[in-house]
Amino acid sequence: MELPIVWQQWLARHDRITDVLPTVPLVVIAAAATAAGQDGWQEPRWHEVVWTAPSCMPLAFRSRWPLGVALFRVAGDLTLMAVASHIAPPPTASLIALYTLAALGSRRTAWTVGVAAAVAITGVHAATHAESVVAGASLLRLDFALAATALGRAVRSRRENLAAARERAERAELMQEVEARRRVTEERVRIARDLHDVVAHHINLVNAQAGVAHHLMRANPEQAYEALAHIKDNSRAALDELRATVGLLCQPDDAPGSRATIPRLADLDSLVGGFEASGLSVSVTSTGGPSPLAPATDLTAYRIIQEALTNTHKHASASRASVVLDYGVHSVRVTVTDDGRPGAPKGAGSGHGLFGMHERATAIGGTVTAGPRPEGGFQVVAELPLSLSSATA
Fold first, then answer.
1. Which residues contact 321 (CB under 8 A, 6 or more apart)?
2. What's the pTM?
3. How many CA atoms lie within 13 A of 264 on its CB side?
4. Which ranges of the chain does DSSP label H, i.e. alpha helix?
5. What average pLDDT does range 261-278 have in this prediction?
6. Inter-residue contact 116 to 109 (CB < 8 Å)
7. Residue ranges per structural domain of the chain
């Protein structure tokens, strides 16, 4: 640590010493001023030096009581100038007190006391020395008093500006940390949601196809072999989607080929084929003119359909399901229904699937409603925007 920094820190912890320090050069200057004469250097007039030393002692408390010290010092200098003008030293201590008041006190108080002290010192000096108020020596004292107040206010403003800048920098750093944590949390939630959708969908299909293969292994080996082939395909698809999801965590210098493509509505055929291989008949219908979708909307619609069909296959005891894509001017409506029996335990799962659908839709400015139908079965309806606003994106 550098010596000036250590010295500044030590003075900051001992404010009384900092306040007393100006008295030392003041006494030395007073002694030198009384020793300098027209005929050269002579012995100092010690009675004036002795008066200067105690007159500076109130400055030791100028940081604690700036207004009181300033008033006391100005009053003392005015009294000395009026009673014994021949030994009255320059009001340097009063100037230091006025500077301290301006640096620590309010602007109104500083300028009121500063202007009043400047006028009083100038007037008393002019009266005791039989000079004009506009004479050089009188105006010099007026200028010094006003300059001390102005310098104190300038230092006060600089300190306030530095403190405000430091506070803004700390607040900006804190906000950056908060924003970084928020983005990390959102990214973790999004990746967890993707992993849930991928794993729940494919593991559910693998489990169903494994049950079919086990049931048909002896009675119909060919169909059992076909079910095992579907298990292989779904396992490979699950690995591809997991690689695509986890690939988001890859480093920037990873090879682009290490990431699989993100699924879209154009991949619905392979999604439906997996469910049909496990025994669930799925029909896909598109109404309205197909419009280009934002990538986030395309992925969200695919994931909602995937999760809705997974819930249907796992919980609804349904044999048929339908997917309807209705393209509007500004949005696309995704409707997934099944023919599960009334009262089927559709909500028997953990609830992460429905919650994830709501989160996905809300993230891009859409909505999702889900619930049982009066005639039986379950229905999921999602309204998703075709394009995203800049804030949503």
1. 275, 280, 281, 282, 283, 309, 312, 336, 337, 338, 339
2. 0.45
3. 11
4. 3-13, 15-20, 23-35, 46-56, 66-83, 92-104, 107-128, 136-216, 221-246, 268-277, 295-315, 352-363
5. 81
6. no
7. 62-253, 265-341+352-385
SS3 at position 383: strand
pLDDT at 347 exceeding the cut of 50: no
Domain 265-341+352-385 fold is: Heat Shock Protein 90 (3.30.565)
* Token pair recorded at residue 321: 């399901």
For residue 127, the one-letter residue type is A
- HSE at residue 76, side-chain half, CA atoms within 13 A, is 22
Neighbours of 211 (CB within 10 A): 13
Report the alpha-carbon distance of residue 318 to residue 44 in Å, rounded.
113
The pLDDT value recorded for residue 391 is 47
Q: How confident is the model at residue 253 (pLDDT cuts 50, 70, 90)?
A: very low
Residue 153 one-letter amino acid: R
* Least confident residue range of 204-208, 297-301, 356-360: 204-208
Task: Give 168's contacts (C-beta < 8 A, 6+ positions apart).
Answer: none
Distance CA 226, CA 203 (A): 17
Residues 326-349, mean pLDDT to the nearest whole number: 74
With vertex at residue 266, the alpha carbon angle to CA 358 and CA 279, rounded to the nearest 5 degrees, is 75
Q: CB–CB of 305/346 below 8 Å?
A: no
